[in-house]
Amino acid sequence: MAARRLKPPGKGRCKCAAASLALNLGASFVGLSSHIRGRTALVPCGLRHAHTVQAGCPSASSLCTSNPREVPRIDALSLQPGHLVSGVSHPAVLVNLAECWPARHCWSRSYLACTHGDLLVAKLRLPADVFETDGLLEPERANSLYADHARNAYVPYVRPLKPLRLRELIGTHFDDYYFEIGENGAAGRLCFDAFGSPERAPALLARDDLTQLTFGMGPAGDGVMFHAHTAAWNALMYGSKDWYFFNPDEFRGELYNRLAMLEARAIPQELEALASDNKSAYSGDSPTASAIPSVMKCTQRPGEVIYIPDGWWHATFSNTETACLGGQRHKDRLPDDWADQLYQHWSGCGLALNALAKKRGDAALFEATIQREPYNLRFVMDHMSHLGAVGNWNGFRLAAAGHRGRMLDVRKRGLLARVELAAIFGQLAESMYHAVEAASAAAVAKAGPGGLSMQVQEFRDALGISHDAYKLVEEALKLDPGNPIANALSKAIETRANSAVAQQRLQRMQTPPQGAASLWRT
Q1: How many domains does the chain fold into?
Q2: Rounded distance, CA 400 to CA 468, Å?
Q3: pTM, whole model, 2 decimals?
């Protein structure tokens, strides 16, 4: 099989002859080995499945190990395309899939900076002076927490993102983990080093639409905090990385409280503490507490692919410098019954509960979602949107107040920076600010028998929401005077207030005093 040359990466091509040779040889090696072993990573789309091993899904025994908490290793050649998501229900290490990708043999920090250095990336790390007034957390710890929280949408951006080139990130800002999702960014370009283009992903991954590409790299001692999303794969190009897993029903209660907001750097130590607590609780004849589920763990080596099923909680910790390419199940193209099936298998999965709540408009499911994942800002915002849509303004205010209280508790535990708390308050205030218009419009629309009393209640709701929004903006600016959301809202509120006062004055000028004749002739 003739080797197919990869698409040129554009400007800033590597001038290192050795790296260029490695890339071209790697492409040739993939083409040859694909033909020999039934792999078709670089075969044109129409011929992609010509040499696919026609094997069914692995048997149940092949997915099991003697230890139920051990992550199984599966030969990817034993999996039939289109059956990865349906056939593998637990995290697994897939071998014989990415070991021969060119990226596996040429990627390094210097290669990425040289060949792909012109790529625009956005760094989450903030200047240390942003955290100087925190009072509870040192700037380094606060920055680490913020990077993880913002990356997983638990916290809005504290400051607007500033783009920089990949070579700058690697050369002068390589002090924490970088992660990106989306085919139009770095991941979309870097996949040319792996399997040729976004459209040429291996059939095992493409058939299940695991094609929302991701790219990550970072130094030793960092990683990604616990989170859950649609099914995904992650191929390690170089380095060594530890993975930690809990199934969707396990990650709740004390386990969730201790790990959900914890930054990646602190996860290994906290998991050791949890294991120690388990031993202490069950030492002696009378256990003092119920057991906390033990973590599933594995170490990923270069060329290995980790597969994570829908909804499974996972985190990573890099033992050395690492770089990886991955993909997630496209969230915009999920089957209509995706959430129903996930819920049937894992009834405690917050991802499934939230999707079903939005699909059905079910208030009870929204509440169950928040009970399972009380720190998830996106789920709270979805719940508030639903409450506003049905006109439950009292519930709307209670939902915002509830999340405010939970975040204050997280802050007291040292798991949330002061500026992060301000950003969350700003996000809640923004949602309430826009809800005032809807509540006011609902009040005006009330008519018919009992309409006046209903109008009064609706206007009270609008005033209550407006008051709550104003107080949240005040709190946010007190915590962080530089918060962009709170500052924008403060100006908008001031403009609206000035406009309302001006309208009232104009109305008084145009309306003659009671009993007086108008000066205007009609």
Answers
A1: 2
A2: 9
A3: 0.83
Q: How many residues does the chain have?
A: 522
Closest CA to 79 of 101, 97, 100, 103: 97
Residue 53 — pLDDT band, cuts 50, 70, 90? very low
Q: CA 382 to CA 374: how far, in whole Å?
A: 13
Residue 497 · residue 489 · CB < 8 Å = no
pLDDT at 280: 75
The pLDDT of residue 310? 98
SS3 (DSSP) at 6: coil
**Same domain, yes or no: 320 and 190:** yes
**Of 333, 348, 363, which marks where a domain is finished?**
333
CA-nearest of 313, 300, 323 to 95 is 300
Q: Which of 81, 6, 88, 67 is nearest to 38 (CA)?
A: 81
Tokens of 287: 């256990």
319/398 same-domain check = no
What is the sign, positive or negative, of the torsion defined by CA atoms of 404, 407, 411, 413?
positive
Q: Return d(Cα 3, Cα 165) in angstroms, integer.
A: 31
CA dihedral 389, 390, 395, 399 (to 10 degrees): -30
Running DSSP on this structure, what letter comes out for residue 322?
A: E
Report the distance separating Cα 358 and Cα 315, nearest Å: 27
Strand 178-181 and strand 296-300: pairing? unpaired
Give the Cα separation of 132 and 142 in Å (integer). 10
The pLDDT mean for the chain works out to 83
Give the span between the Cα atoms of 6 and 195, in whole angstroms.
9
> DSSP 3-state assignment of 403?
helix
Which residues span the domain enclosing 205?
Answer: 53-123+162-277+293-333
Alpha carbon distance 447, 342 (integer Å): 44
Cβ-based burial of 30 (10 A; exposed 0-12, middle 13-18, buried ≥19): buried
For residue 21, what pLDDT is reported?
44
Same domain? 484 vs 402: yes
Helix (H/G/I), strand (E/B), else coil: 72? coil
- Same domain for 390 and 313, yes or no, is no
Work out the average pLDDT over 163-167. 93
Angle at 219 between CA 215 and CA 222, to 5 degrees: 85
Burial category of 506 from C-beta neighbours within 10 Å (exposed 0-12, middle 13-18, buried 19 and up): exposed
54 by Cβ neighbours in 10 Å (0-12 / 13-18 / 19+) ranks as exposed
